[in-house]
Amino acid sequence: MSSIMEAESGKVEFVVPDTAHLMGGCRMGDDASTSVVNSCGQTHDIDNLFICDASIFVTSGAGNPTNTVMSLALRTADYVKQKAKKLELQASRP
């Protein structure tokens, strides 16, 4: 990844010293004052911006989060497709 960044004149600012699943930075919830995204991964503050990775987790479980992340990403993609077909992607909340 560092080689790709540097080949495009980018600069690597930080490297996690070990493998990690970074969680909780964009928490999911109904209240915009305590969360970043709603239950569909759509941000409260920026219309039509969706986040579907482990950062939306409120807490971590005991296992690897990969399958849960993939499930959330699929659910978010289905939601976006459904709303796009109906031209309903103007609002931040479902």
UniProtKB/TrEMBL annotation:
Residues 18-73 form the Glucose-methanol-choline oxidoreductase C-terminal domain. GO terms for molecular function: oxidoreductase activity, acting on CH-OH group of donors. Gene3D superfamilies: FAD/NAD(P)-binding domain. It holds the Pfam family GMC_oxred_C. InterPro entries: FAD/NAD-bd_sf (IPR036188), GMC_OxRtase_C (IPR007867). The keyword Cell division does not apply. Keywords: FAD, Flavoprotein, Oxidoreductase. Belongs to the GMC oxidoreductase family. PANTHER family: LONG-CHAIN-ALCOHOL OXIDASE (PTHR46056:SF12). This is Glucose-methanol-choline oxidoreductase C-terminal domain-containing protein.
